[in-house]
Fold this protein.
Amino acid sequence: MEQSVQRAWCLTMRAEVLTQGSVMEESLDGMVLMWAGLTLLLHRLIEICDPKNPPAPNPEFEHICGRPLGMRFHRKTGDLYIADAYFGLLLVGSEGGLAKTIANEAEGVPFRFTNDLDFDEGGEIYFTDSSTNFQRRILRYWLKGPKMGSSEVFALLPGFPDNVRRNSEGNFWVALHCRRNLPTSLALSYPWLRWVLFKLPISIKQLYYVFIGGTKHAIAIHLDEDGKILEVLEDQQGSTVKLISEVEERNGQLWMGSVMVPSVTLYALDNKL
């Protein structure tokens, strides 16, 4: 895997959308940046959220400045829709600028952790609001057909999935932020232990390393349209790639982003990068 990997270092944390010759990224300080373009999006025009030169993301102000986690362009309008962990579903016009909130609650219940989004063929938007109920499985929810309104287990995985992305062939790439290990097994079995861990006087980053077992590794799993595992890419020691949270396939390459590592990793599937 090492011979076919390139890294692009930056101060943002997660590559989400690939456009024509561009890569959209999110940052810890509420900005969305576009490589090879001019887009700069801010959630809040206040002093502590202003980009520095160079930018200096600070997790301490995430709840004020925002934390974009997922984003997609609307194919018809060119508008950019953003799932922000703190501010819900946001919208930015095709020319960039200040993001505006279009939804942050449903039926009077506030969103807790808006995580990701996507569009169907008709342009309808679907987005997720994450909970603390972590599982090693992917569920498929039927939107139409004889199974409409029901869900089923689509795939069982050796670790905890973070994001699912479909490629042009109808298959899926899944980023696993860690394999199942003793710390995560205990935390999932005993809710009180999760509560104790979150009360410890340590940073979110340190707590994250506890949950992943202390090894900054990376796992990307390739699934077919029926949930069968086709391929597993893994850097067990994290020597080249680590802590990935999303995998997007475009033109024979995988773009891998992370919420913890300030880089974007590019992997050539044909090993000719």
Notes: The chain is about 10% helix and 40% strand. The first helix runs from residue 62 to 65.
